[in-house]
Each structure stands twice: as structure tokens, then as C-alpha cells.
């Protein structure tokens, strides 16, 4: 999905200070203070226009959500929707995540969502995939012992790559489907913008949920 350039993007973003977290690293280990409660915290990396995370925030008001998205014009749409709804359990970070340990303390997260992550099909770009080993080490540290990663993609090669990476990190496969919308898992599924588009095109959606094993320090 191509995103048009937004005029006065910075100015428009600056109107959403309640939801857009400036210098997010300062909240490392302190996200509960920001939300002003001790509820579980979940993160999405690459949230796009926020359909998934905002629906989760609405469905599960007793959870906190932090969504990362690198593109300003895209996250702006998520911020506008959050402000309209007036949620108090979701915030956004306009950054391309590199190492989740920059933002989160050990065991600070209860779950991580990776939805339709950019596939980076060329082998020489494999390290940029959000399910590459170099990211997984960070996820294992910032997730609680029983924390989970949920991953969805239309891209079969990326899915197989992710499964291999999860396995090689000792993660436990809890749920898997190579056609999510034709299984009973569909009942609890919350869709994303990309997912809705792919579903309309008749594409099968891959899904898995893995439980992280603690990283060996
Ligand atoms: C293919 S889109 C999917 C968007 C949304 N998750 C969905 O399913 O509709 C992937 C998004 O991830 C963002 N992205 C890619 N790498 C990222 C990173 N390292 N940190 C944060 N966002 C990232 C891109 O800017 C893009 O908006």
C-alpha cells in the first residue's frame, strides 16, 4: 500500500503529544508509570495505520499497548484515530525499531505482535527482517518468561524463515496456521489493514504464536 506524502507532517504529528511518545528510551523500565497502572504491556513493531493495535486497545481495556512505526505519514493516521477514540491504554512511537532492548527492560513486555512485517526477500537483506535472529535475542530479553510473539504474514517464504529462526532460538510453537481465515483461530483474530486487503484478494494468511524461552546470558 503506497502512502502519499503528508503536507506539514511534523506539525501534524506534534499535535498528538498525548499519544506520540517523544524520546521513548527514557521510559525503559518505566512504561507502567506512563500508563499509570500495573497492567500487562504488549508491543507491536511495524503497526502501520494502527488498525490492529487500536482494535486490541478497545477489546482489552485492561492491557496496555505500545505501537512502533517508522513512517510519519503512516503513524499519523493511527494517532488521529487514537485521539478520536480517546483511548488511555495505547501509545505510539515513531521510530524504526532496531533493538527492542533500547526501549524495554528485561521482562517488561507480556507479548509482541509482528503483523505483515516487510519481507525483505533478498538474502543480503535478511538481517532487516523483524524475525531475524538479531531481533529475536532482544525480544527474548524484553519479554516475560511466559511471553509470546504472534506473527502473521501472507509471505510463505518469510513465514518459513521465521519458523526456523524461532525454532533455533528454542521458542515453543503454541499455535500455527497456514490459512488463518479458514481455521477456528479466526474467531479470536483481529485483522490489520494489510490483512484485510490480502483477504479480499483471496490470499492465505500464515499465523503462528510462539512462547519465548529465556535468553542465555
Ligand atoms: C507491510 S506494512 C504492514 C503494516 C501493518 N502491520 C499491517 O499489517 O497493516 C509494514 C510496516 O512496518 C513498518 N516497519 C518496517 N520496519 C520497521 C521497524 N524496524 N520498526 C518499526 N516499523 C517498521 C513499515 O514502515 C510499514 O509501515
Q: Which features would summarize this protein structure in a list?
A:
alpha/beta, Rossmann fold, 7 helices, binds S-adenosylmethionine, single chain, 7-stranded mixed β-sheet
SSE layout and pairings?
Elements (H helix, E strand, L loop, with lengths): L8 H6 L16 H5 L5 E5 L5 H9 L4 E5 L3 H14 L4 E4 L15 E7 L17 H10 E11 L2 H13 L3 E6 L15 H8 L5 E6 L6
Parallel strand pairs: 1-2, 1-4, 2-3, 4-5
Antiparallel strand pairs: 5-7, 6-7
Bound molecules: S-adenosylmethionine (SAM).
What does this structure look like?
With 217 residues, this protein is α/β, with parallel strands linked by helices. The protein has a single domain (9-211), classed as Vaccinia Virus protein VP39 (Rossmann fold). Helices cover 30% and strands 20% of the residues. It contains seven helices and seven strands; from the N terminus they run ααβαβαββαβαβαβ. It has helices at residues 9-14, 31-35, 51-59, 72-85, 133-142, 156-168, 193-200, and strands spanning 41-45, 64-68, 90-93, 109-115, 143-153, 172-177, 206-211. It has a seven-stranded mixed beta sheet with strand order 3-2-1-4-5-7-6, sandwiched between helices. Strand 2, helix 4 and strand 3 (90-93) form a beta-alpha-beta unit. The relative contact order is 0.15. The mean pLDDT is 95. Bound molecules: S-adenosylmethionine. Residues 45-48, 68-71, 74, 96-97, 115-118, 192-195 line the site of S-adenosylmethionine.
